Amino acid sequence: MDWLKKNQMQWQIFAAALLTAVSLLHTDGANPYGIPGHDSGTFLYIGMLIQHGGMPYLDVFDHKGPWLYILNALAMEMGNWHMIAVFEAIAFFASIFVTFQIARLRAGFFSSLLITALCTWLLNRGMLDGGNYTEEYALPWIALAELLFLRFFQKGKIEGRGFFCIGLGLSMVIALRPNMIAVWAVGIPVMSWLLWRQNRLCRGTGWMLGGFTAGIAPLLLWMAVRGALVACWDAYIVFNLQYTRRVLGLMKQLLPENHPLQAAVVGRFSAFVHFAEVGACQVAALCLIAMGSRRRWRDGAAWASLMMLFLSLLTASMSGFLFWHYGMVLLPTLAYPLAIFCEALERMLFRNVPVCRYLLAGASLLFAGSLVFSATRSYVAWYRHPPEDSSRMHITEAASYIRSHTSPEDRILVFGSQTALYPLSDRLASSKYSYQFPMIVLDSAMHDDFIENFDKTLPKIIVTGKEIPGYEPWEEVMQSYAYEVAPEYAGTDDLMIYVLVDRGDAL
Questions:
Q1: What are phi and psi of 280, to 5 degrees?
Q2: What is the mean predicted confidence (pLDDT) over 497-503?
Q3: CA–CA distance, 507 with 505 (Å, rounded to integer)
Q4: Could you give the CA distance from residue 183 to residue 170 in angstroms, rounded to a whole number?
Q5: Are 419 and 41 in contact (CB under 8 A)?
Q6: pLDDT at 255
């Protein structure tokens, strides 16, 4: 296949572009009828607040990393919330292309295409869930770090720019969410030992520290200049250290057994088993079988990749919640162990049964093509006849009502999880707590701060929902502050809209 050897890089780029397009079809940002989910709506709102001169952590509460909010602010600056699809496309393409490169370290082109298509299938199977998650923007850096580590473990060579990218990627992931650094937690100690044996440890460490500083310093400087550094520490570090334990206990206590969120609260061990069964366990077994069949038990790169896979499993399940998007961090770590298995098959079958090479090529092309075809067909069918989703319709109607009954200077408050109403209506929240559950229930200081902040800045419109368990209805509060139910929403069970008609004295 000379045509493939001569243009291999171009074909890899083409395959990555097609699989990127398939992934985009599963995101809300690329869907003209889509609306942001709870997490995405929160991130987009914080991006909108940055647009208006506000600062994350200081002017609005959330506990993710600052890099995520900057990306969402850039998307909002480009026009509207749908522009987040541009950054998702970049993240998908980079992660898919680099995953292809990881597989190519051990397997042939068509085996690598099959592995990459399989990882994309797992991504689209349910992990995206509308998109704009923290894990999406960490994927390219995780994949790049794994590629650089494993390439060094195989060949023993790495240049200064490789060290720099490893450090830069670590800073980017830490600025998104620190518990996604499993690849570095394995790669850096092993690399340091190998570099020490080569008498290159000081040089490599210097380059990595330089890359890390280049990534983290601008963010710290930005927050320090705007006075948000202490608030960032309190929300991103202190709050997160206590969040998982406290929220698990609270949700198990408040949620009834038949509540939709109850299934997500499963505990760390159950989450670990679930993600292991999704593909990690099978991939590790195939890798060990391949190593045993060839008696290559001293394959350091293979053992390092398995350790990266295992530690990624631990970090994906450490929250104790069974949310599919947590599993994204596993995808790059699946490629190398699978490539080892494919390499063993290629050496065994291609040598004795040459026709297997063509069967593999056909199977990989057929599988990748089926992903493109099925995703495109489903998207076109959905686009022509969008389903009558009552929740989506209620949110879009509520956003339209807010826009028509408020001015851009008016503030609103969404009490509940429908944070998509902020970017959809282009209105800022009256409170630092743009969403409240479970924060104000977990922390009495946050609850008091929320009430005090409510007294100071009364929102023009309040939107409430009935999806929050264990929290008292707001009817009495609405009457105390002279709010009335909007006539159009008086009989709605999904959302209730209250309009401030008289700014009387707060009781």
A1: -65, -40
A2: 78
A3: 6
A4: 9
A5: yes
A6: 59
| Distance from C-alpha of 201 to C-alpha of 180, rounded to nearest angstrom | 25
How far apart are the C-alpha atoms of 420 and 405, rounded to whole Å?
A: 18
Query: What DSSP assignment string belongs to 466-499?
Result: S--TT---SHHHHHHTTEEE-GGGTT-SSEEEEE
Q: Would you call 62 helix, strand, or coil by DSSP?
A: coil
Distance CA 477, CA 500 (A): 12
Q: Which residues of 155-173 are buried (b: 16+ CB within 10 A; e: fewer)?
A: eeebeeebbbbbbbbbbbb
The predicted-structure confidence for 267-303, as pLDDT tens digits, reads as follows 778 888 888 888 899 999 999 999 988 777 888 999 9
Contacts with 386 (C-beta within 8 Å, 6 or more apart), sequence order = 33
| DSSP H/E element including 90 | helix 84-104
**Among 132, 142, 196, 193, CA closest to 166:** 142
- Per-residue pLDDT at 95 exceeds 90: yes
> Distance of CA 404 to CAs 125, 356, 371, 408, 463, Å?
38, 64, 42, 10, 15
Q: For the CA atoms of the chain, what is the radius of gyration?
A: 25
Q: 483-485 and 412-415: which strand pairing? A: unpaired
State how far the Cα of 359 lies from the Cα of 365, in Å rounded to an integer: 10
**Quick one: how far is CA 115 from the chain centroid?**
21
pLDDT value at position 447? 80
Q: How many CA atoms lie within 13 A of 309 on its CB side?
A: 27
Residues pairing with 485 in the sheet: 498
Angle value at C-alpha 179, between 176 and 182, nearest 5 degrees: 110
pLDDT of residue 480: 76
- Write the secondary structure of 401-455 as one string of H (helix), E (strand) and C (coil): HHHHHCCCCCCEEEECCCCCHHHHHCCCECCCCCCCCCHHHHCHHHHHHHHHHHH
Task: List CB contacts of 133: < 8 A, sequence separation 6 or more.
Answer: 39, 40, 325, 328
